C-alpha cells in the first residue's frame, strides 16, 4: 500500500479545513476557527492502487508573514494552497506560501522536486463578491509552476474530489521506493475521517 501525505495550507477563513473534510466525508462543515493542527487519514483506491492518505491541516496563521513551514516542507508529498476568491488578503497569503515553497525547492530541499503543488481558489459560490480574478489565480500558478483551479467547497463536491484525485495522481506518479516519515510522532496519531484530531503545535 502506498502512503501519501498532503498538506492543505491557507489563511484563516480561506476554507482549507472545509475543503479537506468535504473530500473525506462528503459533508460541508462551513467555517470554524482552527486553533489546533489536525491530521485526517483515509484509505482509498486510486487506479487500482491502494493508498493510505494523510491530510495535514495546520492551525491557521493568525499573523501574516509568519510562515513556519519547516515541518510541512519536509513531511508532505504534495501541497494544496487555498485562498478565498472574495478576499484579496487570503490571495496575498497564498502567494506568500507559494513563494516559501518555491524558495525551499530552489534551496536544499530536494524532496520538493517530487512534490505536487496545487493552487485552489475557493468559494466560487461567492462570485458576486469576487476580489480576485480567475486570471490572477492562473497567472500566480503559472509563475510558480503549479496547477490551478477554482471551485466551491460548499457546492462542488465532485470538483473537490477531482482536484484531490489529480493531486494524488501527480504525487503517486512521482513516487520513489523510499517513503517519508513525519519528523514528530506520526505513529501516535489516531486515524480520523469523520472526527477532527487537534494537537497543539509547539513553537520552535
TrEMBL record:
Reactions mediated catalytically: GTP + H2O = GDP + phosphate + H(+)
InterPro entries: P-loop_NTPase (IPR027417), Ras-related_GTPase (IPR051065), Small_GTPase (IPR001806)
GO molecular function, one term: GTP binding
Keyword GTP-binding: yes
Keywords: GTP-binding, Hydrolase, Nucleotide-binding
SMART domains: RAB (SM00175), RAS (SM00173)
Keyword GTP-binding annotated: yes
UniProt similarity note: Belongs to the small GTPase superfamily. Ras family.
Protein name: small monomeric GTPase
Gene: Rergl_2
